[in-house]
Amino acid sequence: MRDDLLPVLACPVCAEPLVRVDGGQVGCATGHRFDEAKQGHLTLLPAKRRALTADTPEMVDARIRFLGRGHYAPVERALAAVVAATEAPGVVLDVGSGPGTYLAHVLDADGPDETASDATAPDGRPDSPPAGAVTARLGVALDLSAVAIRRAARVHPRAGAVVGDVTERLPVVDDAAAVVLDVFAPRNQREYARVLHPAGVLAVVTPRTGHLAELAEATIAVDPEKERRLRDSLEPTFALRSSEDLTWTMDLSAADVHDVVHMGPSHHHVDPGRVFAPTTVTAAVTVSTWTVAGPPTC
Ligand SMILES: C[S@@+](CC[C@H](N)C(=O)[O-])C[C@H]1O[C@@H](n2cnc3c(N)ncnc32)[C@H](O)[C@@H]1O
Ligand SMILES: [Zn+2]
């Protein structure tokens, strides 16, 4: 974990900020300690739990292969545009990040590989950026799946990765995020409002009716009430700022079809040995952005 990301992270037991302590461990002022995994991520769960909703290794591998072939590039571009247009200070927090593909993309699109504050002036002092200079943002990937977070830990040099649970208090300090990304992932309006900077933005990607329609028989249908459920999950703490429907077609090989079926919840319902044929498939998603409207209500 990068040392400059530790002040963004909070102890899952007492909510104090985390610091590097003696022996290289990470901990809080109260005395709670967390070991860094060899891949570099931290596990910041409030208590030991079984990750019942977390993605499995097969699902994570299928997701990395499928997204790595660029099939969801329109989503990557839309999220990069949201981050580029956000002036609030803070990190990009990708909740339910999976292997962190979208986080890596928005950080790549955001700027050079290091923050301006990492530069050193000739006299050895930190070289602060000139007023108004844009510095490249840091990112945090958070997911309940340790398998996914192991992959996210190395997804980008400006990103850190945390095993955490979106249904609990997030292990992130107040106002730390300029942007919260939530791509096909569970949501927590109270916690998103707490960790977002007051001028920050929440970007949510949800599937629409018609998403992967040609694979309907092998995938789980999109809930027709999805839009209402999205509003119910974010209002009244958040107010809708923008909503963009993206629709595109994907020419998928047999391997692509296998991966798109196995990277989501349909993985649990499909015969693992089933062979698929190549086909053209529709993608239909909504990218919505939200800002905090008032104090958290739930
Ligand atoms: C459909 S995947 C989306 C992954 C990634 N955002 C993407 O689009 O590539 C949903 C993700 O949510 C994670 N997840 C499920 N329940 C969670 C929870 N309670 N807390 C954090 N992450 C969770 C899963 O492990 C999985 O990685
Ligand atoms: Zn603590």
List keywords for this structure.
binds S-adenosylmethionine; 8-stranded mixed sheet; 24% strand; 298 residues; alpha/beta; globular
Describe this entry's structure for a reader.
- The protein is α/β, with parallel strands linked by helices.
- The protein has seven helices and eleven strands.
- Helices cover 22% and strands 24% of the residues.
- The strands form two sheets. Strands 4-7-6-5-8-9-11-10 form an eight-stranded mixed sheet, sandwiched between helices. Strands 1-2-3 form a three-stranded antiparallel sheet, with no helix packed on it.
- The structure holds S-adenosylmethionine and zinc ion.
- Zinc ion binds next to loops.
Summarize this entry quickly:
The chain is an alpha/beta fold and 298 residues long. Helices cover 22% and strands 24% of the residues.
**Helical run tally:** 7
Which runs of at least 5 residues are low in confidence (pLDDT < 50)? 115-129
Rg, Cα atoms, Å:
19 Å
- What bound compounds does this protein have? S-adenosylmethionine, zinc ion
The coarse overall form would be globular
Amount of helix? 10-25%
What are the secondary-structure elements, in order, as H or E? EEEEHHEHEHEEHEHEHE
State the total count of DSSP E strands: 11
Strand content: 15-25%
Q: Give me the side-by-side strand order of the main sheet.
A: 4-7-6-5-8-9-11-10
Q: Which structural category fits the helices and strands?
A: alpha/beta
* Biggest sheet record: 8 strands, mixed
- Give the terminus-to-terminus CA distance: 32 Å
